[in-house]
Design brief:
Layout: H1 13-16, H2 24-37, H3 42-53, H4 61-68, E1 73-74, E2 80-81, H5 91-96, H6 106-109, H7 112-117, H8 126-136, H9 143-152, H10 159-165, E3 171-172, E4 178-179, H11 189-194, H12 207-212
Length: 214
């Protein structure tokens, strides 16, 4: 709006010939850049979102790549979000990861074609586990759901993710406290015979998961 020529001046060639013709695609990119830098106004951000969601809008791949990295759509809570940070996860994973992963809002969900073009993911990734793990010490009630989440997604526990989780207090001990995988022991016969401290032993029975976590 700040650069729009007033309609009353459009017939004055001395003014109008020195103006640039509005370029819709350029505006989309420029507005997305302003959204990313936090300098966009609410009215323009809402207009950009409406344009993105309009069925008749055609967005080239390069523009879509820019939009994925900018807060130009709303999540399920009505907050502005980057499409690359949104996910449509299976129900159990969505519930467990709700503190760190948001789903797209209803307006975007009604556009499955746009969800596909913006590459909004439908599966959890290892980085989701790392972000949630960082909150478990402050929110211990997340621990049980987190352990079940890891058990369902063990193929995602690659070396980098395991290393990031190893020093996070995410597992229950036999004393009922939380501790890091790197400090805990499996409840093997030898360990049960040698260790007197229940805080040194992991409490659950997901032995394959505990072994994976080291």
């Amino acid at each position: 709006m700040g650069t729009r020529l007033h309609a009353a001046l459009s017939n004055l060639s001395a003014v109008s010939t020195n103006c640039e013709t509005f370029d819709l695609r350029r505006w989309v990119v420029d507005a997305a850049d302003r959204a990313a830098s936090g300098t966009i106004g609410v009215t323009e951000q809402e207009a950009l979102c409406r344009h993105i969601l309009a069925p008749e809008t055609r967005l080239p791949p390069r523009t879509l790549a820019i939009l994925r990295r900018s807060p130009v759509v709303q999540d399920e809570h009505g907050n502005w979000a980057k499409p690359e940070n949104l996910a449509l996860l299976p129900s159990r994973d969505a519930i467990a990861l709700a503190p760190v992963v948001n789903a797209p809002g209803q307006a975007l969900r009604r556009r499955p074609d746009l969800i596909r073009r913006l590459r909004i993911r439908r599966k959890a990734i290892g980085e989701d586990f790392v972000r949630l793990a960082a909150q478990i010490e402050e929110h211990p009630h997340f621990a049980a759901g987190f352990e079940a989440l890891l058990r369902r997604n063990m193929p995602l526990l690659i070396q980098k993710i395991v290393a990031a989780l190893s020093d996070q207090p995410i597992l229950r001990t036999r004393a009922g406290n939380l501790d890091c995988p790197a400090k805990l022991h499996l409840p093997t016969a030898v360990n049960l015979g040698c260790l007197d401290d229940p805080n040194a032993l992991v409490a659950g029975d997901n032995l394959a998961l505990y072994a994976k976590l080291g």
